[in-house]
Each structure stands twice: as C-alpha cells, then as structure tokens.
C-alpha cells in the first residue's frame, strides 16, 4: 500500500501542473487517465486493508470472549482452592494466551498509526482512511483497555505464612503477603511502572479502619525476572487498626456495631500504572474479601465467615456475609 501510494504521489507531482491549461494536449489526457487509474487502485487497496482490520478486530473480540470465560473459570478454581479444595490455579496458560492477544492488538494499533501517516501524505475526496481510521482506533483502544484491565489479577490472595492459618483470615500485627500479576507480558521499559495496594479503598461504613504498615508500593523494573512475568509481590505486610479519635480506643469491639468483627469483610485493591505503545492506563484489581482478627480465639468464627461467603456469594465487593437462602 505504501509503494502504491509513493508511485501515485510521484506521478501526480511530475505530470500534474496546477493552473496549466493542457486540455488540448492528448498526451496530458492520457497521463491524467493513468493517474485516475492509479488513484482507483490505491483507493481499492486502502479499503481492502481497512476491511481486513475490521475482520481481525471481530476475531479478536471473539477470542477475548473465550479468554474471559477461561479467566472466570480460573477465578472459581482459586476461590475453591482458598477453601481447601484441590484445584489447578496455575496462570501460565492464561498468561500465554493473554500476551499473544495483547501483542496482536498492539500490532494492529501500530498499523493504524502507520495508515494515519499515509493518509496525511496523500488524501483525496471520499478517502476511506480519513473516515474510518479514527473509528477503528477508538474500537481498538477500547478492546485493549478491557483486555488489560481483566488481565490484572490477584495471583495470591492475602494470607499469613503460617501453614496452620487459614487464607483470607489476617491478624493484626502479624505479617501477611499477597501478590498480583499482569497476564500480558508487554510493558514499556522506559516507563516507571508502580504498583500500590490499598485496604478498603471504597470506605465501608461501620467497619473498622486499618492502615497497611511497611511498604504499600512497589516499582516493577524491566530486570525483575521477566521470565516470571510481571508480578506485584508484596510480602511482610502488617495491619494496624486506626484509633477512633472520639474515644481514643479501637473503633468497635467484637460484639458492637452492625457487624461483629469476624463478619466484617475487607478488601485489598491493587493499582498499577501501565504504559505501552503510547497507551497509558491505571489498572486495578481486588482481592477476595477477608476477615481481620486480633486474637486466635476469633479464628474459627472468621473462617466460618470466609466459608459462608465463598459458598454463597459471587460478588467479591460484597460488604458482609450473605444471608442464608430461603427454604
């Protein structure tokens, strides 16, 4: 397409003289007819390229739907694994599929920009590049944004290192770890990619409030084990309850407020500043709800809340344990 355009552009500049009256020149008429023929070929080729891109975007949307189904199945397996069920929670297959699709979409984005450059050099009346390229780029950016947002997942749910402790039950002043992964292994090496974690970012009314001690941010560099993928690994974190300024004590006890301590479901949110090929996004993902206790006597009740939630609710942002189903 670029070669066709360069040939047309050269012939146009050589044979077409604006303002010159050469209507009686038979050779000029032949040259004008040849130019018109070249323009028709160029226009047809542009339309074919755009049609192929439309087709590829349609296939990409279909493939993305399949990936969302696979990702949903993985989330269900991870949820069962947190309750102790044997389940395969490896992410390498999903990481390979997401990366391949992301790479293809970013290549289409580069191709669209190249088409935009061609259109700036040579355009004409009813130029399909001028009309369709912006719409295709908007559709492609929406596809990439959705794919990247869904590719940011919590690989390891919040848990304490002691094997006898239950996952998703954390104790104040005790260390815990959690890890998120970006399944698309593409990033700009010149961009500082920073990941942050927040607890109860949306602010749940009536719940105790906590601060995450130690580092709550991490910068991912190009040299951080690229063979292991793009991982936000937070270790040796601790939680400290915020004191109620009105009483000088903790916000509430185990039997006060709308929910008892072991029924409060908290969330950790990961955010990641992502950039690649001129596309900059803030990606976000959320952990499964977890319970925060202050002593081991609350462990069994907290674990019961976790089991109850994971068996009855599919909404990770629920604010409390779901009610029992009716008869």
TrEMBL record:
Q: Where in the cell is it found?
A: Cytoplasm; Nucleus
Principal localisation: cytoplasm
Give the Gene Ontology MF terms in alphabetical order.
DNA binding; DNA-binding transcription factor activity
Q: Which domain of life is it from?
A: Eukaryota
Gene3D superfamilies named in the record: STAT transcription factor, all-alpha domain (1.20.1050.20), STAT transcription factor, DNA-binding domain (2.60.40.630)
Q: Where is the STAT transcription factor all-alpha domain?
A: 1-144
The answer to whether the entry has keyword Transcription is: yes
Q: Where is the STAT transcription factor DNA-binding domain?
A: 157-293
Gene Ontology CC annotation, any one? cytoplasm
Q: Which UniProt keywords apply?
A: Coiled coil, Cytoplasm, DNA-binding, Nucleus, Phosphoprotein, SH2 domain, Transcription, Transcription regulation
InterPro entries per record:
p53-like_TF_DNA-bd_sf, STAT, STAT_TF_alpha, STAT_TF_CC, STAT_TF_DNA-bd, STAT_TF_DNA-bd_N
Coiled-coil features, chain-numbered ranges: 32-59
UniProt-listed GO biological process terms: signal transduction
Q: What is this protein called?
A: STAT2 protein
Instruction: Please give the organism.
Output: Steatornis caripensis (Oilbird)
Query: Which gene does this sequence derive from?
Result: Stat2_0
């Amino acid at each position: 397409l670029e070669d066709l355009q360069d040939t047309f552009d050269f012939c146009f500049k050589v044979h077409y003289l604006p303002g010159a009256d050469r209507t009686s020149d038979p050779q000029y008429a032949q040259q004008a007819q040849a130019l018109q023929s070249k323009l028709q070929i160029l226009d047809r080729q542009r339309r074919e390229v755009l049609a192929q891109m439309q087709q590829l975007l349609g296939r990409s949307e279909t493939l993305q739907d399949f990936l969302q189904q696979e990702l949903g199945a993985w989330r269900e397996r991870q949820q069962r694994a947190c309750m102790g069920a044997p389940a395969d929670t490896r992410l390498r297959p999903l990481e390979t599929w997401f990366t391949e699709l992301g790479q293809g979409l970013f290549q289409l984005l580069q191709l669209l920009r190249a088409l935009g450059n061609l259109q700036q050099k040579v355009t004409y009346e009813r130029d399909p590049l001028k009309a369709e390229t912006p719409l295709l780029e908007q559709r492609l950016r929406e596809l990439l944004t959705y794919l990247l947002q869904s590719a940011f997942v919590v690989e390891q749910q919040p848990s304490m290192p002691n094997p006898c402790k239950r996952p998703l039950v954390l104790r104040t002043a005790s260390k815990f770890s959690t890890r998120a992964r970006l399944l698309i292994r593409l990033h700009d090496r010149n961009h500082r990619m920073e990941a942050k974690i927040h607890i109860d970012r949306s602010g749940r009314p009536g719940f105790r409030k906590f601060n995450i001690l130690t580092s709550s941010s991490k910068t991912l560099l190009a040299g951080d084990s690229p063979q292991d993928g793009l991982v936000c690994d937070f270790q040796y974190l601790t939680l400290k309850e915020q004191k109620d300024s009105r009483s000088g004590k903790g916000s509430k006890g185990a039997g006060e407020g709308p929910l008892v301590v072991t029924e409060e479901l908290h969330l950790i949110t990961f955010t990641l500043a992502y950039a690649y090929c001129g596309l900059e996004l803030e990606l976000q993902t959320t952990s499964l709800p977890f319970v925060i206790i202050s002593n081991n006597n609350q462990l069994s009740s907290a674990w019961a809340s976790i089991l109850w939630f994971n068996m009855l609710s599919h909404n990770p942002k629920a604010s409390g344990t779901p009610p029992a189903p009716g008869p």
